[in-house]
């Protein structure tokens, strides 16, 4: 079953004027067939025309032709800058035909704007004073992801009963795949309104609070509004004939806010079971980290045709209701973790993406420990430990795009290695100092309460400064080895008939005074390890270094296991080719 809609509703209470019309009736900047390299990156080098810009408000209006897979957009951005500028720009995929551009309510002639590579440049006859409103009316077939959510774009799928099922997921390539934006971490609009027009019986689930739904003929426009900064790649469209589960939740801080799950009508019992997991998850995060950051909006989950993504207050979920051995849905828990690590706390440069993904990944073993104790905790940590590459430092201290991180940098190590770095830091600092440091990183203060904090930007050095403030000793050496070096520290163990000697070896001979627990016949001793350290033992004593797995270090057994896995994969590939 296909549904078609060609124009946005022109409801005056939502937006001034009709948002758009079919591209064939105007003389737009024509759309390109493929996205440019500029569009397909997010973050990295900042164009000169955007370096001083910020977005105080964004109004994003959308409608769709589901038959032809066309998105019609009408975006108005309120831009701020410290001083007037001759030119300004925002980012928008060249796949879209730009039908008109308006500056402060005046339609610009075509010679005053251009979009050759995906940077929409506005060059009016006089300097732009701020605040300024920039309106862009556009349409086209947006990029369709090959393998969402790892590959970004707009998905035009169908539900099992044949209705349209549209979803966006653009973390890797950025917000400019479907709306004009500043495609940088700092480009978060302070507030956003989304006006999404769809035909009945479709429902549009998005960020923030649902303000109103207006009916016009067979169409209805869902008016969503955020109350805080929202992550640029976290702005999301989700359209299907959804049903909704909702309940009010009272947190450990005493505030009450709504929990909402938009799901397809199929598998209602499984949807209810998943929804029932949310209260305990929220309580865990609030106990361990601090208050849910967006309580004045909602806790939102929406079923999607892709696996999942941390879309702020409307987290995408497509894990098909699969439980893991810890008794919870790891995918929903991981994406929900990003409300704290990614949405409340946002890295100010993709080079520091481990703050999102390392902490987000560590929340799975930590939740398993919270539910079931240490055995479940270490089962999950061990699973994460097996795949570390250690080919690049987790942090380069350079301006990075998201593509740089995944294709030229640490890639998957920002997840699992980041998680293990956090585990090791926790053991080194102790729970009280560690969790105080994490809370301060996330909220910018150690005493967060509902209403006394806002989303913040931070980077690795911010975290190091916080850790050093909360530690009895300076821990720069820890981060030098684990974050700014690629290789793991190696523990050399030399044993004779009379003693055993332990020595830390690091890349570049960096200092690494990591305390080391050693078990001798079950009795555990902690070695200071400021220098090489020896213990007296007999040839019959059982000696185990780091018996409680507190320290991330090089271990040959994991390298042997990876080599075996690679051999098996190569054998399987040859068998398939034969």
Automatic annotation (TrEMBL):
Q: Which reaction does it catalyse?
A: Release of an N-terminal amino acid, Xaa-|-Yaa- from a peptide, amide or arylamide. Xaa is preferably Ala, but may be most amino acids including Pro (slow action). When a terminal hydrophobic residue is followed by a prolyl residue, the two may be released as an intact Xaa-Pro dipeptide
PROSITE patterns linked to this entry: PROKAR_LIPOPROTEIN
Q: Which CDD domains match?
A: M1_APN_like
Record's InterPro entries?
A: Aminopeptidase_N-like_N, Aminopeptidase_N-like_N_sf, M1_LTA4H, Peptidase_M1, Peptidase_M1_dom, Peptidase_M4/M1_CTD_sf
Q: Which residues form the signal peptide?
A: 1-18
Isomerase: present as a keyword of the record?
no
One GO BP annotation of this record: proteolysis
The residues annotated as the active site are 335 (proton acceptor), 415 (proton donor)
Record-annotated Aminopeptidase N-like N-terminal domain positions: 57-233
* Keywords noted in UniProt: Aminopeptidase, Cytoplasm, Hydrolase, Metal-binding, Metalloprotease, Protease, Signal, Zinc
Q: What is this protein called?
A: Aminopeptidase N
Naturally occurring in which organism (per UniProt): Alteromonas stellipolaris
């Amino acid at each position: 079953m296909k549904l078609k809609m060609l124009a946005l509703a022109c409801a005056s209470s939502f937006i001034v004027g009709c948002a758009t019309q079919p591209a064939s009736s105007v003389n737009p900047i024509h759309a390109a067939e493929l996205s440019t390299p500029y569009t397909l990156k997010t973050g990295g080098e900042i164009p000169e025309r955007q370096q001083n810009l910020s977005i105080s408000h964004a109004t994003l209006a959308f409608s769709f032709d589901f038959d032809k897979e066309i998105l019609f957009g009408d975006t108005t951005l309120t831009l701020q800058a410290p001083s007037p500028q001759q030119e300004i720009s925002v980012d928008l995929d060249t796949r879209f035909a730009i039908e008109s551009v308006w500056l402060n309510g005046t339609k610009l002639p075509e010679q005053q704007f251009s979009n050759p590579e995906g940077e929409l440049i506005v060059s009016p006859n006089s300097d732009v004073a701020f605040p300024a409103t920039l309106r862009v009316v556009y349409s086209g077939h947006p990029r369709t992801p090959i393998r969402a959510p790892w590959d970004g774009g707009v998905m035009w799928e169908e539900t099992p009963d044949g209705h349209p099922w549209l979803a966006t997921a653009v973390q890797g390539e950025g917000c400019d795949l479907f709306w004009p934006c500043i495609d940088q971490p700092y480009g978060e609009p302070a507030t956003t309104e989304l006006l999404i027009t769809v035909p009945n019986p479709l429902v549009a689930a998005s960020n923030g609070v649902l303000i109103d739904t207006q009916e016009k003929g067979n169409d209805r426009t869902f008016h969503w509004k955020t109350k805080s900064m929202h992550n640029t790649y976290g702005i999301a469209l989700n359209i299907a004939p959804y049903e909704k589960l909702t309940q009010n939740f009272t947190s450990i801080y005493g505030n009450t806010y709504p929990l909402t799950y938009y799901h397809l009508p199929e598998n209602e019992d499984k949807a209810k079971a998943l929804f029932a997991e949310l209260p305990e998850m929220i309580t865990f995060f609030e106990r361990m980290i601090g208050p849910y950051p967006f309580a004045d909006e909602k806790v939102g989950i929406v079923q999607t045709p892709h696996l999942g993504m941390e879309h702020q207050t409307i987290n995408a979920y497509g894990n098909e209701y699969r439980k893991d051995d810890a008794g919870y849905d790891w995918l929903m828990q991981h994406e929900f973790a990003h409300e704290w690590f990614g949405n409340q706390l946002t890295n100010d440069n993709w080079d520091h993406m481990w703050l999102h993904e390392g902490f987000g990944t560590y929340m799975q073993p930590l939740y398993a420990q919270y539910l079931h104790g240490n055995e479940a905790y270490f089962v999950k940590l061990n699973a994460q430990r097996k795949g570390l590459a250690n080919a690049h430092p987790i942090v380069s201290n350079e301006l990075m795009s998201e593509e740089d991180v995944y294709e030229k940098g640490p890639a998957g190590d920002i997840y699992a290695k980041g998680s293990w770095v956090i585990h090791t830091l926790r053991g080194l600092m102790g729970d009280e100092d560690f969790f105080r440091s994490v809370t301060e990183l996330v909220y910018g203060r150690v005493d967060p309460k509902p209403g006394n904090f806002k989303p913040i930007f931070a980077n690795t050095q911010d975290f190091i400064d916080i850790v050093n403030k909360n530690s009895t000793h300076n821990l720069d050496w820890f981060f030098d080895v684990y974050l700014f070096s690629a290789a793991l520290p190696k523990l050399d163990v030399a044993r004779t008939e009379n003693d055993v000697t332990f020595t830390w070896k690091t890349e570049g001979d960096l200092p690494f005074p990591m305390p080391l627990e050693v078990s001798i016949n079950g009795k555990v001793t902690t070695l200071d390890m400021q220098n090489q350290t020896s213990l007296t033992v007999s040839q019959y004593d059982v000696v185990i270094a780091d018996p409680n797995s507190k320290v991330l270090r090089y271990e040959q057994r994991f390298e042997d296991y990876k080599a075996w896995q690679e051999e098996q994969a190569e054998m399987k590939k040859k068998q398939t080719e034969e």
